[in-house]
Design a protein that fits this description.
Blueprint (H helix, E strand, L loop, with lengths): L1 H16 L3 H19 L3 H11 L5 H24 L5 H7 E3 L5 H7 L3 E5 L18 E6 L5 H11 L5 E4 L3 H10 L4 E6 L11 E5 L2 E5 L2 H9 L2 E11 L2 E10 L9 H16 L18
Parallel strand pairs: 1-9, 2-5, 2-8, 3-4, 3-5
Antiparallel strand pairs: 6-7, 8-9
Helix pairs in contact: 2-4, 3-4
Length: 291
């Protein structure tokens, strides 16, 4: 069944991906009205999350954020489809890295990097980063159940080079390359929700007590990798900037969980400034500590 669905879906996705962005954004607007006003996809999840995180805001303010978020989510959907065939020239124009030169210092020091990021702005177009660095590039992802769609995700995210690695295999991959002296930059979406009983630490995210993934921090300390934050900002529809923000150069010098805290502080600052660009449809606070 999954294979049949893929066979039917792939030609449609490919044909959509070759359309100009202006046409895709028209479709995004239509999709927004369908998703928000008719289907109501995860509307309750989004509004519950916003009420939990922003109790000080009025219902009218939170509803406005919700509508803006769904518009942005639909843009992300068409931008992800576009990633199948988008040219390097076009994506460089639309996803601009503001300070790629900051990586030169790490190259000179022969230091590998773990690049922490959140589900903010556009995380799907970050594959262009592979064209801007001298190190071997990796991105961590959670494989899909469908082998066909999983292969499509990998193909899309490897469009500009780099290697997509399963979250269950990344430690082994990086450890082997570390032993061989191969320097790497690894992109990790670090605001995921751990499974119940599969975490070591709790802390606050947007002032809500939740379990935290600490694997990135632990890996950085074990292999002595520098840690950076990728700050992605939406400039206007279809245009983003990405900035490398150094977090720590010597991770072993930091107390346990402080690096994780630094990442969430950076992400929270962006969310508080422009909350509509965060992925509110994700059940990030489902394992929160109840009063």
């Amino acid at each position: 069944m999954q294979r049949l669905l893929y066979i039917l879906a792939y030609p449609i996705l490919w044909l959509l991906s070759i359309l100009p962005m202006r046409i895709l954004y028209i479709k995004s607007t239509a999709l927004y009205f369908l998703v928000y006003y008719i289907v109501g996809y995860r509307k309750k999840v989004v509004k519950d999350n916003l009420a939990l995180v922003f109790p000080e805001k009025s219902l009218k303010e939170r509803d406005k954020i919700a509508r803006q978020f769904f518009k942005h989510l639909c843009d992300i959907i068409v931008e992800t489809i576009k990633a199948l065939t988008i040219s390097e020239k076009e994506i460089r124009k639309r996803f601009v890295v503001t300070n790629a030169e900051i990586l030169d210092e790490y190259y000179r020091k022969n230091r590998s990097i773990l690049l922490m990021a959140g589900h903010y702005g556009n995380w799907e177009w970050s594959g262009i980063l592979n064209k801007l660095m001298d190190f071997e590039a990796h991105a961590v992802y959670k494989p899909l159940d469908s082998k066909q769609f999983d292969a499509l995700v990998k193909k899309t995210r490897e469009h500009f080079g780099g290697t997509i690695v399963s979250n269950k295999k990344i430690v082994g991959v990086l450890f082997r390359k570390w032993k061989k002296g191969i320097k790497t930059l690894t992109y990790i979406l670090s605001d995921q929700t751990p499974k119940l009983g599969a975490f070591k630490h709790r802390d606050t995210f947007m002032d809500i007590d939740v379990p935290m993934f600490t694997g990135t921090e632990e890996l950085a300390k074990k292999l002595d990798f520098a840690v950076l934050y990728l700050k992605v900002e939406k400039v206007k529809r279809g245009y983003y900037t990405a900035t490398f923000v150094p977090l720590v150069d010597n991770p072993k010098e930091y107390p346990d969980f402080q690096i994780t805290r630094m990442f969430f502080d950076a992400l929270e600052a962006q969310i508080r400034e422009k909350p509509e660009y965060y992925l509110w449809s994700h059940k990030r606070w489902k394992l929160r500590k109840m009063d």
